[in-house]
Each structure stands twice: as structure tokens, then as C-alpha cells.
Amino acid sequence: MKVHPTAILLGDVHLEEDVEIGPFCLLEGSIRIGKGTKLGARVSIKGRVQIGENCKIYDGVIIGEEPQHLKYQGEDTEVIIGNRVLIREYATIHRGTPFGIGKTIIEDDVMLMAYTHVAHDCVVKRGAIMANCATLGGHVEVGEYAFIGGLSAVHQWARVGDYAMVGGVSGVSLDVPPFTRASGQHAHLYGINTVGLERRGFSKETINILKKAYRIIFRSSLLRKEAIEKVLSEFPDSPEVKKLVEFLQSSKRGVARDVGRG
């Protein structure tokens, strides 16, 4: 364990073996940091924060600051960060609220690039990537291995599904379904995220099934309910189609439209 002499540790701070704390860091609160995690210079961690193993947190990052919510009154909420998470320069992660889930969660193998912001009560799932200056409003859920492009913003309560891709400089106000591509000031769908799925090892057969299901749901003249019934009957053995349908049926904000129907 290496703690730079200029670092300040206040409160109940527990550091496991091989943790490194860089110069001028401030750790204040009930903080747990797993083995092998490294903090650069001027990192600030406040409140109740749990960070997993082998994470790398770069200069100027702020974790666990109070949420930017007018109703927050200092309640005991937290940030939970998994293992092997990369958090680049000046990213900010705020803790949860008592009127949300009470915590902000960053799962394993996530990468948050420079100047990203994860607001209160967000859940960023395993393997997701947020590019530079991407921003999440409160209560947002980002699915496994999703990608959010630089300078994009996701509206509070919206969801980005598993393996979805949001292009740069986009505004996401409605849910982006899993396996799809979305882009635009008011983000619309542009079909299946073929390249992303190929990179994650999905077979050509699975990708083709998803493309057919997408066309039925988003580009046919069928009502949404009829389209869902049709894809479930045509592809009853596809777990990916079931995941897509479940996402659509559980949407509370509504689902982004295909660009042809915008």
C-alpha cells in the first residue's frame, strides 16, 4: 500500500493491499478500496463509497459527492464501483438519493472516459463504455457492453439497453433498445448495432435474426403489440429477441423511434 504524504484521509477509510493513493488526494467518509486499485493525483472521494479491485482512477476524478438534486438533504446514500473499472481524468460520479435506489452503481469492467458524468441513482452495467464528456442524468440505466459516444447526454430515467450504441453528440430522451444503434439531437434508431455485436462475438445467424425482428417491430405497418407477437412466434428460441421484447414491454419513458418514422 502506498499513500502519498500529501494525501488526506479522514473518517473510516479502509485500503486493501497494493492500493496506491496519489498526491493531493482527499478521501473523506466511509470508504473501502479493494486491492490493486490505483488513484492518480487530486482524486476526491467523499461519503460512503465502495471501490473494487484493480481499478485505475486518473487525476482529478470526483466520486461520491452530493447529488445535484434540490430535495437531497444529506441522507446516507452511497456509490458502489466494481472491479477493473477505468475512470479517466475529471470524471464525476455522484452518490444516490433516498428517493431513488439510494446508490449509484458502476459494475465491473466499465470505462468512463475523461469528463464523463454519472448522476445520482444511475446504474452502469458490466463492460459499458462512456466516451469523453458523455453525461447521464439521474436514475439512468446503461446496459451491459453498451457504448455512449462523446458529448452525448441521456435524460433522467431513460435507459440504454445491452450492447446498444449511442452516437456522439446525441440527446437520448427515450429508451434505446438493446442491440440497436441510436443517434441525433433527439436520438432516433438506425437499426441493429452490427459492428458492436460482431466485436462481442455474436454469430451471423443471431445478428440476422435481430435484423429481421427489428424490421418487423420498427419498420413494418403493424401495431407494436402485433409486431411483438409476430417476432415471438417467428423466433421463439432466440434469447436475444426475448431480451429485446422484454425491454420494449418494460419501458416507462417510451422507446426511441426508427429514423424513418421520426
TrEMBL record:
<feature type="domain" description="UDP N-acetylglucosamine O-acyltransferase C-terminal">
    <location>
        <begin position="175"/>
        <end position="255"/>
    </location>
</feature>
<protein>
    <recommendedName>
        <fullName>Acyl-[acyl-carrier-protein]--UDP-N-acetylglucosamine O-acyltransferase</fullName>
        <ecNumber>2.3.1.129</ecNumber>
    </recommendedName>
</protein>
<dbReference type="GO" id="GO:0005737">
    <property type="term" value="C:cytoplasm"/>
</dbReference>
<keyword id="KW-0012">Acyltransferase</keyword>
<dbReference type="InterPro" id="IPR018357">
    <property type="entry name" value="Hexapep_transf_CS"/>
</dbReference>
<comment type="function">
    <text>Involved in the biosynthesis of lipid A, a phosphorylated glycolipid that anchors the lipopolysaccharide to the outer membrane of the cell.</text>
</comment>
<keyword id="KW-0441">Lipid A biosynthesis</keyword>
<dbReference type="InterPro" id="IPR037157">
    <property type="entry name" value="Acetyltransf_C_sf"/>
</dbReference>
<dbReference type="InterPro" id="IPR011004">
    <property type="entry name" value="Trimer_LpxA-like_sf"/>
</dbReference>
<keyword id="KW-0443">Lipid metabolism</keyword>
<comment type="subunit">
    <text>Homotrimer.</text>
</comment>
<keyword id="KW-0444">Lipid biosynthesis</keyword>
<dbReference type="InterPro" id="IPR029098">
    <property type="entry name" value="Acetyltransf_C"/>
</dbReference>
<dbReference type="GO" id="GO:0016020">
    <property type="term" value="C:membrane"/>
</dbReference>
<keyword id="KW-0808">Transferase</keyword>
<dbReference type="GO" id="GO:0009245">
    <property type="term" value="P:lipid A biosynthetic process"/>
</dbReference>
<dbReference type="Pfam" id="PF13720">
    <property type="entry name" value="Acetyltransf_11"/>
</dbReference>
<keyword id="KW-0677">Repeat</keyword>
<comment type="similarity">
    <text>Belongs to the transferase hexapeptide repeat family. LpxA subfamily.</text>
</comment>
<dbReference type="InterPro" id="IPR010137">
    <property type="entry name" value="Lipid_A_LpxA"/>
</dbReference>
<dbReference type="Pfam" id="PF00132">
    <property type="entry name" value="Hexapep"/>
</dbReference>
<dbReference type="GO" id="GO:0008780">
    <property type="term" value="F:acyl-[acyl-carrier-protein]-UDP-N-acetylglucosamine O-acyltransferase activity"/>
</dbReference>
<keyword id="KW-0963">Cytoplasm</keyword>
<comment type="pathway">
    <text>Glycolipid biosynthesis; lipid IV(A) biosynthesis; lipid IV(A) from (3R)-3-hydroxytetradecanoyl-[acyl-carrier-protein] and UDP-N-acetyl-alpha-D-glucosamine: step 1/6.</text>
</comment>
<dbReference type="InterPro" id="IPR001451">
    <property type="entry name" value="Hexapep"/>
</dbReference>
